[in-house]
Amino acid sequence: MRVLVVGAGTMGRWLAAELAGDHAVAFADADADRAADAASSLDCGTDDGDRYDLLALAVPMSAVGAAARDYAGRADAVLDVTGEMRDTLAALRESFPDAERVSTHPLFAPGNAPGTVAVVTDAPGERTEAALDALAAAGNDLFETTAAEHDRAMETVQAKTHAAVLAFALAGEEVPQPFHTPVSGPLSDLADAVVSGDPRVYAEIQARFDGAERVAEAAERLAEADPEAFADLFAEARE
Fold it and tell me: What does the UniProt keyword field contain (predicted)?
């Protein structure tokens, strides 16, 4: 089938590479040069302005509504990898009311692929099923969820986790390697991995999902606790 990937960043390129083995993939991007570069690197085409079998949105969360409106009517099916479900599916339903619709969230950076992919099947069909089959064939582990369950989980696995790790990176100081413990060493490595990413992506996650405030509140409770209160908090954390 003919697939148009909208968004030629790292996630869009990853998605195109997963689909290109069995399907004819083309790129579109707000930056035409970036779309052309992505197409050249993967030996794909660029948007010819015609209709496609599947439209795949690989754009930031904040841009998915505009992208859906811009490409409305250009495909019989639509899939996204934006990482948010509630607002994304609402935008897809509005712009593609009669199309097949599936929202996915690869729970990894493209450099760590293959990995686990959350899937919300909103309006399934042969085209979206073919796309999901291609992701599975590439070694990814797909699992079905709901928009509400997914977005609730992201408050912890993304917003709270990123806030906690970045807070450690901001508060911690450089120490010689021999001083690191089995806890601090891996945490420092994790902080390095996070800060090597794109801050715009992390900012969008914090803006969309609640959670950072809870991390700040928890840290304040720990900082102010006397030994007895600290033990109570420790017991609460164990639960």
Answer: Oxidoreductase
